[in-house]
Amino acid sequence: MRTPQHPRYVVWELTLACDQPCTHCGSRAGTARPNELTTEKALAVVDELAAMKTFEVVLIGGEAYLHPGFLEVVRGLVARGIRASMTTGGRSVTPQLARAVKDAGLHTVSVSVDGLEVTHDLMRASKGSFASATAALEAFHSVGLRTAANTNFNRLNQHEAEALYEHLRQLGIRAWQVMLTTPIGRASDRPAMLLQPWDLLDLMPRLAALKERGFDDGIAVMPGNNLGYFGPEELSLRSLQRGMTDHWLGCQAGKYVLGIEADGAVKGCPSLQTIPYVGGSLATQSLETIWNETKPLAFARTRTVEDLWGFCRTCPFAATCLGGCTFTAHAFFGRPGNNPFCHYRARVMQAEGQRERLVLAEAAPGAPFDHGRFEIVIEPFDAPDPRPPTPRDLVKVRRPE
């Protein structure tokens, strides 16, 4: 099973400890995992990543800065020639921490901002979170770090995209990753928060327009892996420069992407569900062995159209797309291969006078990176929505009885 592909881009959850109880957190972060890797062991993992020619490691949590060896890991990565970045909610960032990570050699920091003040604080379940995220971006920018932001779009915040872009632009960000809230972890408890597939017909053209603004403003607006696919806006959304075109090339988990959980569990992508996709543990195995010899990390290397089902099986882009984002499809249906968060698919359904509604059929059990199960209901495109949800409805917990 040895492959010439390698873990070029690694997202590493240093700890599951967190200082915010976010309503859409896929890992249900808050408390450190049992048996998280020590600083000594983490530095040994840095050596293994360097040996496998990793280019960049993004440190996440929980909150990566809550790990006692956070700065040592950053310095270790930089010393081995690996670009070190961080994604953070920014809740406890101080000017002193910003200076410390800059001095340690951190290349880029992305702060999660999920709406304007009221919306962001509601999603983060932390009053003052928007102010602290804004202050964090200002602190990182002031010490000369390259700053970015990332946003999960859903029914709570989709109408704020343009205003949020303007806020982030004024803070001097250089990049903005936009993605869709997926029903994994705590987000799976709040189905009313989630976009319905037809919402993409409004959201995608607006994000594409912001992409064009970004070219003028020096901001790279880039879609996350679960935002697509093959609608008319994607060619520009995935491009790196104005005038270029690009498109989704299939799930890269276990091909050039790797995720590490805080206890050493390794999976092909940081967002993947734990139980079906962990190939081994760095606490007991080498990274090289896990990467080359474990089946759960190899699924995207061997996937074909024959592994798809539902709409994705008959899609004209099936051979290239291969069902879109794996963890998104799995979060909805308990298996990959049929992804309802697809702009092209929504457009096809609209042309046929229909749309797909996603309805929660089985709630998630309540573990990190868990999911429930949804069913697809086909209805007329102009069918009325149920009672429009209020913000409080959108964060209401629906759990097993």
What do these coordinates show?
By secondary structure, this protein is α/β, with parallel strands linked by helices. The chain has 16 helices and 12 strands. It has helices at about 40-50, 70-80, 95-105, 115-125, 130-140, 160-170, 200-215, 235, 275, 285-295, 300, 310-315, 320, 325-335, 345-350, 390-395; strands at about 10-15, 55-60, 85-90, 110, 145-155, 175-180, 220-225, 255-260, 265, 280, 355-360, 375-380. The strands form 2 sheets. Strands 7-6-5-4-3-2-1-8-9-10 form a 10-stranded mixed beta sheet. Helix 1 (about 40-50) links the parallel strand 1 (about 10-15) and strand 2 (about 55-60). Helix 6 runs parallel beside helix 7 (about 200-215). It starts with 8 loop residues before the first strand and ends in a 7-residue tail after the last helix. The mean pLDDT is about 95.
Main pleated-sheet profile: 10 strands, mixed
Average pLDDT figure: 94
Which word captures the global form? Answer: globular
**Total beta strand runs:** 12
Provide the low-confidence segments as ranges: none
Please, how many helices?
A: 16
Tell me the Rg in angstroms.
Answer: 20 Å
Helix content: 25-40%
Structural category is alpha/beta
Work out the strand percent.
15-25%
Please give the alpha-carbon distance between the first and last residues.
Answer: 43 Å
String of helices and strands:
EHEHEHEHHEHEHEHEEHEHHHHHHEEH
Sheet with most strands: strand arrangement: 7-6-5-4-3-2-1-8-9-10
